[in-house]
Structure formats: C-alpha cells, structure tokens
Specification:
about 190 residues, binds 5-O-phosphono-beta-D-ribofuranosylamine, Rossmann fold, seven-stranded mixed sheet, alpha/beta, 6 helices
Length: about 190
C-alpha cells in the first residue's frame, strides 16, 4: 500500500466510540503537509461520544451509526465509505468488532491502536491487568484489524516502564502520550 506523498492524500475515516484523544491527534497529524492521509469522515457508534466535538471543530463530516443490528450498521457504513471514496480506516477507541464481511471489503486497510503490548492483554482493562500481574512494562500497539479481537499483524509497538507508583489512571495517561506518537508513526510506516 506504499504511496509517495503528493497533493492527493489517502482519504481516511476514523471510527470512534468515546473520548477521541487519538482522533484529535490524528486530525492534527493529517493537517501536516507531509502526512500521507486526510481525514474525510468520522464515524461513531455512540451519539454522545465526546470525540465528536473534534470533528465539529475542524468541520470534518461525521456520522453516527448505532450497532443495534450489526449487519445493517456495517452496510450503512460501507455505503458511506464508498460514496466518499475512503481508502483507509483508523479505529481509535472504537468499541465494536467489525465482521469478516466488512473487513473483506477493506482488505488490509483497517488499523487499530490498542493500549497493551499485544499479544498480551487483548480486549478491555489492559492497564488494570498489567498492574495486577505486577508487570514491569506495558505499552501500546498499532495493528491491522481482523475479525478476531486485537489479533491482526502488528505494525508498530512502543514499550514503556511501569513504575511502582503507577495506578490505572497514571498508566493510562502515560500510555496515551505514547499512543499519540505511535499512531502517526505507524501510518507513515504503512504509506511512506
Ligand atoms: C485508547 O487507549 C486506545 O488505545 C484504545 O481506546 C482508547 C481510546 O482513547 N483502543 P481515545 O478515545 O482515543 O482518547
């Protein structure tokens, strides 16, 4: 999928469910001249996702698609993406598992960020689990998305030291800082 940077950036959609700090960060990254992506659509499965405010601020089109019926929701999203010629999808705190059927249509073009050193701690409560196990290190991973939770090929990973005084909150904050550096680096790695 390598592509040199030109005036035509890769049309990208970001999927969120919550706070959207990674969305905010990717919007900033995409606005740099040498970023390979432009963000053309934000999709949230939650109407009240806080991160939607960043799409509003930057006047990026946003759509709310609830996942009460996953098949229907995915069909709606596929149409939205096709109409807007979206070629790349970044999941950023998106709390739904996309089906094989959906992913086949965007084969190898969907990536996610996860707050652990995968394959360790797939799923939720990664910080709590790392602390409970007295791990010395944690971190974050950007990986390709498959229909198996947090299991696709790893693109980049960043390791950080857990200090004795860390709690869930401090660890989450520390790792988020690294997430915001890692996601743009991983996108550059894919395209440049
Ligand atoms: C991040 O920790 C991300 O790794 C995980 O969900 C969290 C989303 O945070 N998948 P935010 O909404 O981007 O602030």
């Amino acid at each position: 999928m390598k592509k040199s940077i030109g005036p035509d950036k890769i049309r990208t959609a970001i999927f969120i469910s919550g706070t959207g700090s990674n969305l905010k960060n990717l919007i900033k990254f995409s606005s740099k001249r040498n970023s390979p992506i432009s963000i053309n659509l934000v999709i949230s499965n939650k109407k009240k996702a806080k991160g939607l405010k960043y799409a509003n601020q930057k006047k990026i089109e946003k759509k709310i698609v609830t996942f009460k019926e996953q098949k229907k929701a995915e069909k709606i999203i596929i149409n939205l993406l096709k109409k807007r010629k979206i070629k790349f999808i970044c999941l950023a705190g998106f709390m739904k598992i996309l089906s094989n059927n959906f992913l086949k249509k965007f084969n190898g073009k969907v990536v996610n960020i996860h707050p652990s050193l995968l394959p360790k701690y797939k799923g939720l409560y990664t910080h709590k689990r790392a602390l409970k196990n007295n791990d010395n290190f944690s971190g974050c991973t950007v990986h390709y998305v498959t229909s198996k939770l947090d299991s696709g090929k790893i693109i980049l990973q960043k390791k950080i030291k857990i200090s004795k005084t860390d709690n869930e909150n401090t660890l989450r904050k520390k790792i988020l800082i690294e997430e915001h550096k890692l996601y743009p680096r991983a996108i550059n790695k894919i395209f440049i």
